[in-house]
């Protein structure tokens, strides 16, 4: 819906009393053609593309809390498609392309800022590995380049590039089309778009079990009663193993906390995204002015959305090493999410041993960038009962066939 200047003024003067709701809040129906479990960005995008592209509109998204309250609202919003292997490169690039026109597609400003993502190299091995990656990425037609220390300094003047520093900066890879976007806007934009096509978005509705008959799904048990479903797509980020256990199978996934923090807001000073796997920190500056800072997963398995202090301590040490100018900045907030990590650091998107149940999971530390692409291929998979060629390699069976897609390097600092 387009808002004119007059409607904006009218709503402001009426204290937004008549501001239309962005999506409905319906009671669940008895049954749907498709139920999507999980109202994060991926689940909402799946519902949107199912309705828009495949004409499947009798769809419900069931969310145990509030939409976008999981990892979608907890991530540090970095978007890029600089993955090593062809399979991943094609999938993440599809997603980046969808991101590039998503504000227009949804008529909702997702605040995409393609300010460039740099990955630093601190020794000769890093530099060679980074060059190999840049070449592989370019062979897939994706923008990527190697920067010299001088070029890095010109782009990020506040970065400590002194050759005397503990981890000297010898070079960096740059994806100029990489950047950040507003995370909740992505969820809200997809939610509003899906709602307009008639999708029911049902919050405070936890799926507690599956009803199966002769190896096929019939519906889901929820905290708001039984809901019948011909097909069920499960997209629950850090809880994929929990839902798989309810359906009677196991996933090769480990769940870990991943934390992040933000500083007090300051004037615009940092205009790129900088990541370092060796020093182990990444940082960007949000449009509000706060620095958004993160590092790797906490090593232990947990479902507590927190994170331990040693990770914070280590990442702050690393931050000051690279950006001494931030040493007197105060930190404002810290939080965590639960990320499901596959042994090859690539997702699982496809069918499962139960007919009619599809899983989209294992995005680990890097699924925000994949949100539109993941929804796009998952909608295709559910609608056709067959994967799209872009997600065909990302099966559950690859863990028995051995056709792994090892992207630990692309997950970089967040691992
Ligand atoms: P979610 O948004 O978590 O949605 C899943 C939903 O399922 C949740 O809302 C949950 O409440 C719901 N759910 C769970 N169980 C049930 C149930 N039984 N019934 C009903 N609903 C249920 N990725 C990037 O690409 N770039 C980054 O910079 C980045 N930074 C990150 C930083 C942090 C601190 C974290 C935690 C993650 C980061 N990620 C990043 C990863 C990214 O956030 C996730 O991969 C992505 O958001 C997953 O989206 P989703 O929609 O699958 O999950
Ligand atoms: O996947 O780019 C990423 C990322 C950055 C921080 C966490 N994940």
Can you describe what's shown?
With 415 residues, this protein is α/β, with parallel strands linked by helices. The chain has 2 domains: 24-75 and 184-252 and 344-414, FAD/NAD(P)-binding domain, CATH 3.50.50.60; 114-178 and 255-341, D-Amino Acid Oxidase, Chain A, domain 2 (2-Layer Sandwich), CATH 3.30.9. Helices cover 30% and strands 24% of the residues. The protein contains 12 helices and 18 strands. It has helices spanning 5-13, 41-54, 86-100, 102-106, 124-139, 149-155, 183-196, 240-247, 309-322, 371-384, 398-401, 408-411, and strands spanning 31-37, 59-62, 78-79, 117-121, 145-147, 171-175, 179-180, 200-202, 207-213, 216-222, 225-234, 254-263, 273-276, 281-285, 291-297, 331-341, 348-351, 357-361. Strands 1, 2, 8, 9, 10, 11, 17 and 18 form an 8-stranded mixed beta sheet that branches. Strands 5-6-4-13-14-15-12-16 form an 8-stranded mixed beta sheet. The protein is globular and about 65 Å long. The mean pLDDT is 96. It binds flavin-adenine dinucleotide and pyrrole-2-carboxylate (PYC). Pyrrole-2-carboxylate is lined by residues 76, 78, 80, 282, 294, 365-366, 369, 414.
